[in-house]
Amino acid sequence: MRIPNVFTFIKYGILAIILVSSFALMLNASQQESAIMDELAHVPAGYGYVHELDARLNPEHPPLIKIVSALPLLFQDLAFPTDSPAWKDEVNGQWVAGTQFFYESGNDADRLIQWARLGPIVLTVLLSLLIFVWSQSLMGSWWAPIPTALTAYSPSILAHGHYVTTDIGASLGFILAIFFFSRFMMHNSRKNLVYAGLAYGIAQLLKFSAILLIPLFLFLIAVFVFVKAFNHRVSLFGKLKHFVQYGFRYLAYLAGIFAIGYFLVYLVYIPITLNYPMEKQTTDTTAILTSFGMQDNAIPPCTLAQPKARCLADLDIAMTTNSITRPFAQYMLGVLMVIQRATGGNTGYFMNEVSAAGWWYYFPVVFFYKEPLPSLILLGFALLLGIGSFLKNFRGPASLKDRFFTYVNLNFAEFSMLSFIVLYWAYSMKSPLNIGIRHVLPTIPLMYIIAAGRIKRWTRQDFDFTQGLFRNLMTAIVGMVKSSFKTAAVIFFVVWYIAESLLTGPYFISYFNTLAGGTPNGYRIVTDSNYDWGQDLKRLAQFTEEHNIDKIAVNYFGGGSVHYYLGDKAVDWNSTMGDPKQEGIEWLAISINNLQNAIAPTAPGFYRKPEDEYPWLVKERSPYDPDARAGTSIFIYHLQ
Question: Which pTM does this prediction carry?
Answer without folding.
Answer: 0.93
